[in-house]
Write a structure and sequence with these properties.
- With about 500 residues, this protein is of the alpha/beta class.
- Among the domains are: about 120 residues, Rossmann fold (3-Layer(aba) Sandwich); about 210 residues, NAD(P)-binding Rossmann-like Domain (Rossmann fold).
- The protein is built from 15 helices and 22 strands.
- The strands form 5 sheets. Strands 10-9-8-11-12-13-18-22-21 form a 9-stranded mixed sheet, with helices on both faces. A 7-stranded mixed sheet has the order 3-4-2-1-5-6-7, with helices on both faces. Strands 14-17 form a two-stranded parallel ribbon.
- The longest helix is centred in the middle third of the chain and has 22 residues.
């Protein structure tokens, strides 16, 4: 985050978050100068806090202030609803503030531990979807205190946010595991900077570059790292890309997960949390099929191991839908298309998806990892599905344009591996409420529900397509064989 000694900050919200930011700026004058709090609370308007006036209501005074060059608005209201933030953004934008930053949601803040470095430029994703649920991270993360935690896919959208939140867990060591050196370098530098600025607790951060597909390496690394908990977020996730590369999808997602699970079992890792997707439910895509098989691998491991309380491991699965802002998702794509002047490409006017923010999803994953039981599949409450067309229109308006007038929306048809609506649970599954808000447990709908296929046998049939076997050389990298073999086990898969 670039800083300027001449920067004038208007902090929106004079509550605990706004005051914490103002105090930090006062101590570190290099960050700028807080010239005013803007508030809607009549009990605070007209007062001063450490010499800084509290002005309001926001929609009135913002117009009078008129943002000057170098002025910055910082929204410090982590518990505010998406609707309120949307209105606030419109007021500030109309008042001439071209630099508007926002503090992360309450789920990322622990006991008032708030720093200016945590703020970021507001973007369309802050105005989309529902208001995220507040999760008490300090309470949720207690089970990881003084533990060694490994996050796979630590450079990805989900993995990196898990790592940010784990800074506040008091873990002894945080392992950042990934295949791409650049993404791991970036999240490592970000976490180090956050720690230097006082965010979270001191934690040893260790980068680990490796490939989940390398079974020997995974066995070696899990044995030597001595991790107490593993959050497995790594996967190839781009649906059309995986349709074109089915062998690569299964090799990385399925066999990578299998290697990691087997190593965790062997080393008796206390907790193994697998992050999965609604696309694993009655999948039509290779990606969805790979994730469904991974769910089964993790749950099978739970049945075959001794639970943690008896010296073994707890294996669990956490399933949720789309997250806003992940790499390759629609929000960044729409943003790029808007910057080019359009059109925005939407597959179908009625296509709908469930959405939640990445921080909310990660907070609930971390909570489920602590309260979850061995062998359970948990489902995060995704609210109501949203039409992709509506997301496109909201993003166009965010940038000050009108849909179909300034920027067109073009319907291009469903891509390979896509369907109009995703399901959060299958017809033979039923969600059961837990005592934890926004987390359900998935149960079989019928007693003595039959097993669809022999998982071990299927894995062995898929193996020669991913790993060369002279006796079956014609199957190596054979995409058609891969698809047809998966289709036999998963009838919903499209060939």
């Amino acid at each position: 985050m670039s800083v300027s000694k001449t920067r004038r900050l208007h902090i929106i919200g004079a509550g605990f978050a706004g005051r914490a930011l103002a105090n930090e700026v006062k101590v570190k004058s290099v960050l700028g100068e807080v010239v005013a709090f803007l508030e809607d609370n009549p009990e605070l308007i007209g007062k001063e806090i450490d010499g800084v006036p509290v002005l309001g209501p926001v929609h009135n005074v913002a117009k009078l202030i008129r943002g000057k060059v170098g002025d910055e608005a910082v929204i410090a209201m982590p518990e505010a609803s998406s609707e309120y933030i949307k209105k606030l953004y419109g007021v500030l934008k109309s008042a001439g503030f071209d630099r508007i930053r926002i503090l992360p949601g309450i789920s990322q803040i622990i006991n008032g531990d708030i720093h200016l470095i945590q703020t970021r430029s507001i973007d369309p994703q802050d105005l989309l979807g529902r208001t995220p649920i507040a999760v008490n991270l300090k309470e949720s993360l207690f089970y990881l205190r003084d533990k060694r935690v490994l996050v796979t896919g630590a450079g990805g959208s989900i993995g990196s946010e898990l790592c940010r939140q784990l800074l506040s867990a008091g873990v002894e060591r945080l392992y950042l595991f990934g295949h791409g050196e650049n993404s791991i370098y970036q999240i490592d530098r970000e976490l180090q900077t956050l720690q230097e600025e006082g965010v979270g607790e001191r934690t040893d951060i260790v980068t680990v570059i490796g490939d989940l597909k390398d079974e020997r390496y995974i066995n070696y690394i899990i044995k030597n790292l001595k991790a107490d908990a593993i959050f497995h977020a790594a996967a190839y996730k781009h649906v059309p890309l995986m349709e074109a590369n089915p062998v690569a999808a299964i090799e990385n997602n399925l066999f990578g997960t299998l290697n990691l699970v087997n190593a965790a079992k062997r080393c008796k890792v206390s907790r193994f949390v697998f992050v999965t997707t609604d696309k694993a439910v009655e999948p039509v895509s290779i990606y969805g099929a790979s994730k469904q098989l991974c769910e089964k691998i993790v749950l099978k491991a739970a049945r075959e191991t001794t639970p943690e309380e008896n010296g073994g491991s707890n294996f669990m699965v956490v399933r949720f839908g789309n997250v806003l802002g992940s790499r390759g998702s629609i929000a960044p794509l729409f943003q790029t298309q808007i910057e080019r002047g359009g059109p925005l490409t939407v597959t179908h006017p009625d296509m709908r998806r469930w959405f939640m923010t990445i921080p909310e999803a990660c907070s609930l994953v971390l909570k489920a990892g602590g309260v979850g039981d061995n062998g359970e599949l948990y489902l995060l409450d995704m609210g109501e599905p949203v039409r992709i067309r509506d997301v496109a229109e909201q993003m166009i308006r965010f940038y000050g344009y009108e849909p179909e007038i300034d920027i067109k929306i073009e319907y291009i048809g469903c891509r390979a591996g896509e369907k109009l609506d995703e399901k959060l649970f299958a017809d033979d599954e039923i969600p059961v409420r837990t005592k934890f808000k926004k987390i359900s447990r998935i149960r079989p709908r019928f007693e003595n529900q039959k097993v669809d296929f022999d998982l071990d046998a299927l894995i062995e049939k898929l193996r020669p397509a991913c790993y060369f076997d002279e006796r079956k050389s014609d199957l190596y990298r054979n995409n058609l064989y891969m698809r047809s073999t998966l289709k036999e086990a998963i009838p919903t898969l499209k060939l």
